[in-house]
Design brief:
Layout: H1 10-23, E1 29-33, H2 37-46, H3 53-64, E2 74-79, H4 81-84, H5 94-99, E3 104-108, E4 113-115, E5 123-125, H6 131-140, E6 145-152, H7 161-180, E7 184-191, H8 199-219, E8 228-229, H9 246-260, E9 267-270, H10 277-289, E10 297-302, H11 304-314, H12 321-338
Parallel strand pairs: 1-2, 1-10, 2-3, 3-6, 6-7, 7-8, 8-9, 9-10
Antiparallel strand pairs: 4-5
Helix pairs in contact: 7-8, 8-9, 9-10, 10-11, 10-12, 11-12
Bound molecules: 1,3-dihydroxyacetonephosphate (13P).
Organism: Cynoglossus semilaevis (Tongue sole)
Keywords: Glycolysis, Lyase, Schiff base
Enzyme class: lyase
Length: 363
């Protein structure tokens, strides 16, 4: 007996493609505000704020109440499940606040990183059970796109072939399920910056990981035009003693992408991975000025590198809310310029900026 493959219709494909393009339209990137309860707790603790549902809501409100200046800088906001159903102080649903600005709503749909037996401390990401039903519900509740993060670590023996192929496969399964529900999947295979590896090694591993991801996408018949990639930039490990210029980081990053990411993918939105806000912006700007051809839009999907100043400005005090929102707007504007290769840093020296690195960071 032959059965029909669950293929997308032309209308579904068109819709997915248009949504993906809209999120990364020129000058726009993504605000990743989808920290889980535990990750948000770590952030809040750093500024002396207790990790309660109300405090998490307050901080998200600071970001979401930014005025119209962010409308041309942010194309999508990634929510955590809890935030998707929260409201402002005035009772306006956060989803409505974002959509009213013409910004698309996304949601983190993975259920976190878990150990991968058979490896030395490597991981996979769980959350496929019930994903189809959750996507259907999120779509009804206003989500246009989703995010799933896989994590790979780098040392002398990692990432193993098993971790690379398992994580690639799960990203492809997630992507095909999202697309069945008209949700654009953001594909995030994050290679952690922990370690003392140099730029070359990060480039090599990034190429291996991305090649495996797109092989799996092909096997699962994922419609690439209706996806976005969220990779790490190619950077040296945080304990590497060699310093590289933004131009070297840009060249390594684009070389890796050009060797592995099909031109059918509309956009690449980098994670910041614990770089300082300024460092991440300078690197994104250099990537957009790198003298290599590329078929994709190259922009940001930053979490820490869009929120760190705002969080430090806020520190849980009502009277700081306005200036915290201003800090966020400033970073959104800077990264919008960087996504067009038009940012000239006024802050000067990258190292002068506070790193927001956390070892083996869990989102
Ligand atoms: P960072 O930019 O803080 O690395 O986070 C982005 C993200 O969404 C990780 O999943």
């Amino acid at each position: 007996m032959t059965t029909q493959a669950l293929l997308l219709t032309e209308a579904q494909k068109k819709d997915l493609h248009e949504t993906a393009l809209c999120i990364v339209s020129p000058g726009k990137g993504i605000l990743a505000a989808d920290e889980s309860v535990g990750s948000m707790g770590k952030r809040l603790t750093q500024v002396g704020v207790e990790n309660t549902e109300e405090n998490r809501r307050q901080f998200r409100q600071i970001l979401f109440s930014a005025d119209d200046r962010i409308n041309s800088c942010i194309g999508g906001v990634i929510f955590f499940h809890e935030t998707l159903y929260q409201h402002s102080d005035h009772g306006v649903p956060f989803v409505k606040m974002i959509r009213d600005k013409g910004i698309l709503v996304g949601v983190k749909v993975d259920k976190g990183v878990v150990p991968l037996p058979g490896t030395y401390g490597e991981t996979t990401t769980q959350g496929l059970d019930g994903l189809s039903e959750r996507c259907a519900q999120y779509k009804k509740d206003g989500a246009a796109f989703a995010k799933w993060r896989c994590v790979l670590r780098m040392n002398d023996t990692s990432p193993s072939q098993l971790a690379v192929s398992e994580n690639a496969n799960i990203l492809a399964r997630y992507s095909s399920i999202c697309q069945q529900h008209g949700i654009v999947p953001i594909i995030e295979p994050e290679i952690l910056p922990d370690g003392d590896h140099d730029l070359k090694r990060c480039q090599h591993v990034t190429e291996k990981v991305l090649a495996a991801v797109y092989k799996a996408m092909s096997e699962h018949r994922v419609y690439l035009e209706g996806t976005l990639l969220k990779p790490n930039m190619v950077t040296p490990g945080h304990s590497c003693s060699i310093k590289y210029s933004p131009e070297e980081v840009a060249m390594a990053t684009l070389t890796a992408l050009r060797r592995t990411v099909p031109p059918a993918v509309p956009g690449v939105a980098f994670l910041s991975g614990g770089q300082s806000e300024e460092e991440a912006s300078i690197h994104l700007n250099s990537i957009n000025n790198c003298p290599l051809n590329r078929p994709w839009i190259l922009t940001f999907s930053f979490g820490r590198a869009l929120q760190a100043s705002a969080l430090r400005a806020w520190r849980g005090h009502k009277e700081n809310e306005k200036s915290a929102t201003e800090q966020f707007i400033r970073r959104a504007e800077v990264n919008s310029l960087a996504s067009q290769g038009k940012y000239t840093s006024t802050d000067g020296y990258i190292e002068a900026n506070q790193r927001v690195y956390g070892s083996c960071y869990a989102y």
